[in-house]
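Duplicate of #3305? Posting structure anyway:
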């Protein structure tokens, strides 16, 4: 079974949901999860859709090309498609609070999250033992007013070295600068 997740945002207008769901049906897909929201102030439509395809001939690349040609261009969508064939790599940024970290690691450990966690970064050593218990590498990268630039350079180096796809700030108590945000635009 091939499973894909589609993330969409674009200007809101009629027929987006019907067009996307009909497209999935015409591709012989089964929608297993769909969520949408419209930001009325900005007139932006957001959708997250998960779909399964049972055909052995299903190709994620062919699906992406058809999606672009049939829907994305028509609605001027910004979109991404993720396949369950590849587990995305998530970096966790933490500080001293452990409740979000425990929640995420518990879900990860149970198999609820279809992803990899190559490492955890923290600006404090307080939660290293939790990372050790879950056998996830832990990097202590202290951040002060005087070392913020060097710390972010080290964070970026680690993110690149491990091929990180996105970052979760699990109660990371630092302001993330544009340097990091621009490198991981819409992925934090």
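Output from current build:
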């Amino acid at each position: 079974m091939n499973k894909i997740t589609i993330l969409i945002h674009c200007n809101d207008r009629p027929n987006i949901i019907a067009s996307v769901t009909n497209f999935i049906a015409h591709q012989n897909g089964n929608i297993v999860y769909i969520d949408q929201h419209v930001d009325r102030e900005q007139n932006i439509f957001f959708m997250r859709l998960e779909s399964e395809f049972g055909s052995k001939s299903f190709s994620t690349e062919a699906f992406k090309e058809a999606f672009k040609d049939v829907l994305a261009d028509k609605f001027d969508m910004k979109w991404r498609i993720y396949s369950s064939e590849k587990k995305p790599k998530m970096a966790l940024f933490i500080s001293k609070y452990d409740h979000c970290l425990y929640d995420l690691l518990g879900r990860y450990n149970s198999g609820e999250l279809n992803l990899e966690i190559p490492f955890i970064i923290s600006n404090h050593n307080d939660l290293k033992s939790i990372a050790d218990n879950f056998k996830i590498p832990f990097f202590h990268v202290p951040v002060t007013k005087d070392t913020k630039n060097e710390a972010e350079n080290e964070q970026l180096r680690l993110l690149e070295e491990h091929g990180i796809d996105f970052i979760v700030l699990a109660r990371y108590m630092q302001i993330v600068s544009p340097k990091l945000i621009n490198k991981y635009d819409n992925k934090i």
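Confirmed duplicate; merging threads. The first strand starts at residue 2 and ends at 11. The chain has a mean pLDDT of 93.
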